[in-house]
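Internal ticket - ligand job 214, magnesium ion:
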Amino acid sequence: MNVIFMGPPGAGKGTQAERIVSTFHIPHISTGDAFRLAMSQETPLGIEAKGYVDKGLLVPDEITNGIVRERLQQPDCNEGSLLDGFPRTIAQADALDVIMESLGKKIDHVINLGVDRNLLLARLTGRRICKSCGATYHVVFNPPKQDGVCDKCEGELYQRSDDTEEKVGTRLDEYVNKTAPLLEYYRGKGLLREVNGDQDIDLVTSEISSLLRG
Ligand code: AP5
Ligand code: MG
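stdout (structure tokens):
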């Protein structure tokens, strides 16, 4: 089963992906996580990506497509994958079709997490992430049991460098201009499933799970 999670920055893609992959046993492929890992290791990819990610801009398609092409060829993707934050442009969606076809795979579901723009800023500025295991929290909406400490692995929680008010504004503009048109693209293919992302986190997970089992 190959699934794509779409939705604006802060919609809950990562939060839901963590839960869905543990139930459906498919790998979670987040291009944002891949860029952040490369940035923290200061690899050539990370150094190049940093110039875009830190400004809240999309990384150019050729770079991003290459990462996904390589990742989907790994054996752990044989039974499926969950793409979080890819594709984000029409050109990326076209490239994904080519990649999938060359690997004899197909996209089964595109889940769009819809959340009102005015809720996203509070979600993103209050987000905290575990340095060790990547689990996502929110200081108000999904707080860890102990301030600054991960419930799952006791790792230290940090704030993403692009979760400032100014960068969130740029990220939302990029979403509206470049990514939102993809909704029509996938609706036209009959793959798009809409989920209200402005509900309790557990409820969102159970709606997604039933769509995927559907
Ligand atoms: P990426 O890491 O993908 O960021 P994003 O799309 O901006 O999305 P986020 O990760 O910010 O939000 P999310 O939907 O995962 O929300 P989360 O679950 O964390 O990309 C970062 C950057 O990398 C991009 O800006 C770009 O530069 C580059 N990049 C990545 N992919 C690319 C691509 N394909 N092409 C080009 N460039 C690319 O939740 C957010 C917060 O809300 C958390 O605190 C969470 O606890 C809370 N929350 C979640 N669900 C709920 C709920 N139901 N109720 C209340 N609070 C909730
Ligand atoms: Mg995310």
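Auto-summary: Residues 13-14, 30, 32 surround magnesium ion (ligand 2) (CB under 6 Å). The two ends are 12 Å apart (CA to CA).
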